[in-house]
Amino acid sequence: MDQAGLTALIQTLAQGLLTGGLYALIGTGLSLIFGVMRVINFAHGDFLAIGMFITLALFRTFDLDPYLSLLVAAPVGFALGFVIQRLVLARLGDRLSEGSMLATLGIGLIISNTLLLTFGAQPQNINVPYATNTFQLGGVQVSIPLLIAGLGTALAIAGLNLLLYRTELGRAIRATAQNPLGAELQGVKTAHIQAIVFGLGVAFAAVAGVLLMPLLYAFPTVGENYTTKAFIVTVLGGLGNLPGAVAGGLVLGVVESLGAYYISNNYRDAYGLVAFLLVLLLRPEGLFGRTVKRV
Amino acid sequence: MRTVTLFTLSLALLGAAQAQGGTIKIGAITSVTGRFAEFGKMQLAGFKVGVEEVNRRGGVLGRKIELVIEDNASDVNKGLAAAERLVNAGVPLVLNEYSSSLVKAQAQYLARQKVPALVFSSSGDDITKPGNDYVFRLNQPATEYARVILNIFRDHKFKTMAVIAGTGAFEKSVADAAQDLAKSYGIQIVEDQRYDKGLTDFRPVLNRIKAKNPDGILMVSYAEDSVALMRQAREVGVKPRLFAGGAAGFALPEFVKDAGSAAENVVTATAWIPQLRYAGTQKLNVELKKALGGQDPSYHAAQAYAGVLAAAEAIRRAGGTDREKVKAALNSLTMQTAFGPVQFKDYEGFRNQNPLAMVAQQVQGGAFVPVYPKTVVPRTLKFER
Amino acid sequence: MTTTAPLSAARPRALTFGNVWLSLALLAVMLLYPFVFGKALNFGVSTLIFAGLAMSWNVLGGWAGQLSLGHAAFVGVGAYTMTLLATPERVPAFLGGPVAPWWGALIGMGLAVLLAAVWGALTFRLRGSYFTLSTIAVALVLRLVAINSEWTGGSEGLFMPELPTFLGLDLFDRRVEYGLALAFVALTLLVTHLLRRSRLGYALQAVREDEDGARALGIDPARMKLVAFMLSAALTALGGSLYAIYLQAFEPHTLLELPVSVQIALMAIIGGRASIQGPVIGALLLATFGEVFRTVFASANLLIYGVLILAVTLFAPDGILGLFQRGGRKLGTAR
Q1: Is A83 an 8 Å CB contact of chain C?
Q2: Model pTM score
Q3: pLDDT (tens digit, 9 = 90+) per residue, B267-279?
């Protein structure tokens, strides 16, 4: 491989990893929810859309820098998730596994259509001066907003790990994930824990939406694509497996990027989908490690 | 129940109209609501200006004209239901709007009912190629979007070019036409990449193109993608002599606003600009702007305006509202409008197609200026390198 | 079954309310529609096609309890197969010329069965949500193939060619199409009625209630689900062929998208998955709602789907028809 070819490969890999970081952030939220609650959240992408539109609205109204919107989007996402778990998912009882799919599907439709009524169907951008800024690293160009998104992802995931493994709340969450009944007997208020977990998962999606906004554009049904991406990421990593979700996100980003560069862009979305189907069929526990068979 | 009320309502309206000596009702379908409502808004303004102009000049055959506008809610099934209501209302012809996925199904249905469909805004080649007896189109087909850009490339001796296009029907139509034209012009297409909706990481594609270093890049995409595409092109550092857009997202005012400095020097095809030297172009622009409450009109508004004028003229020549006579009148129609000349011809495999050329404009100093063809008093093109 | 059975049973239960008379009454209403609303046939035809599609979906979703969010794939298989085979320029040379639409529709059903057989054989080893996830992926892959291939017409889609007359009837006459769509709904109702009284139907109900228990009774759950899947796929593809004739021109973007799958599934679930006629009622109600509130909700016409599915999931797991049935049953015991 000549010098130019090598640079191109590194460039493609770097961009794949950075995009993959965002996928990881989206997938982590979904996987966390599944791991603790056995709920597949079909509204995940729509929560991401909420994050995008919060950013858009704050930028339009107060000229607020998109990254400052994190301070609003994350708590709003958390609160929304907390309430939805309490008002909807907690009431499904033993119909949870299928009922939650339908309920979140409905919630997703309500969100996207409400955004449609509020903001209109036209895709909307925010024009910030640093949107196209890059820096050079040995011939490889790195987009600054994409790098910020990658760093944000790393921080969020590190924070989640601290929470899960260094705090009392984290212990309770892990206990609930492993054995809800046992946890309840130990005095853990599992209903409360599940609401917190759903809130965290939604907050992750909303944060991803904020980080995406300087790079992309928002439209009410933008979530559809990201829900699918989140499914792919979590299945690649193993449903409920958090480190797996991070790895799955990076793998998806790199696979898409390499496929688009070296094969063809036309089937870009198909690379992930095919990988997803193969893993689903051949290794339903995910690519990485061994998860307890819970489903 | 809704149908019943609608039916009685239209009966009542019909009665009222006859009492006044009868307006001539022309059918029109557009997207008042839904995904395409933005274009629908432009078209409604064009309709309004067109109807006012015809009636100011005394209407048609001594009667005023009136548009019966049906909303397709940007949905194919609702569009078909809308077409059926117009057929049953007895209109002599139907003006047909924007999205090809809706227009194709509506036009097919109208043709089966033997009602002329006058398409004024949808550009997929396959609407009039091969087309049929009852479908007429006054706006430029996708091939023309590609032709104007490729003409610029050819005139400046470009040897190589790359294509990035969405997978929508319109984008595919333009990109495929560019393939054919490039072959006949002797321009080599070094990359032709299509992307699916929602893909906003164009960097791998742009890197691929950068490695090939083409003279020109033709991009065909809708509003949302055009901005992301140009931002990322600057970021990746791909540098052709010219970036060109195939209308759609690149021709909208929002493109210049949202893409900011990334939009500079981008050339785009467009269907109509106020600088065109047809009679009444300036005046039309002023009236459209007024109808839009001060907003700048896009070419979709001018197309809708021309649709009304052509429909009125066809009815005048037909001497009445008989559908077959109106169809025959459309076949032999020749007229000048502020949108451009209108006549329906069979050529290059097209049927009942108005052979109208596109124009090109370039972003210079943060605003669109016309650069092609000669009839618009073009400014000099600026190249990236 | 007693009224004290918990409302939150794990799976929807088979209902007794939906008897043959209700089916006949529904068909009679649909038969009358064109005589009353002869000027709104397009709305009628599309609504009936979706009612039939929802019924077809329910063979798998209701009877086998397998939630599919990829049925657009089968609609596409039916529509594309019939149209491609009927188009002189596109039909494969070895067939020696265009294939009549009714044979094309049958071939489409065959291909759909084949797809379902392979897909189901691979995925029914997985339980619950894994199957649902796989349906989304398969439909999306088919969509990408349709968009990116030349032989499918790519993203510009296909135009319906001239078709031969069917028993002397013009297939592009909306009245004929209405009759065919009505026949399609009647067929799906008939299949469901037969299913209910068949060994397959009993086996499916057993599997749906308790998969392990069914296995103990000597039923092979994977095989039962597979048969239901193939049946559902065949019916859906038939509906897809009809839909293609009705549209006369279609693009992959209107036919193969996720929202199409979701819409079909939700019509069935909102109407009532466990009942025989629930999906038809769901489709008729939602279509009427959509038309009445078209201007109010504008583009947000799926909002009503979201609200209803949430309400149904929370308060009426057996769907709208299930609500009536439960009410009826309560009255029955009160007496």
Answers
A1: no
A2: 0.90
A3: 999 999 988 889 9
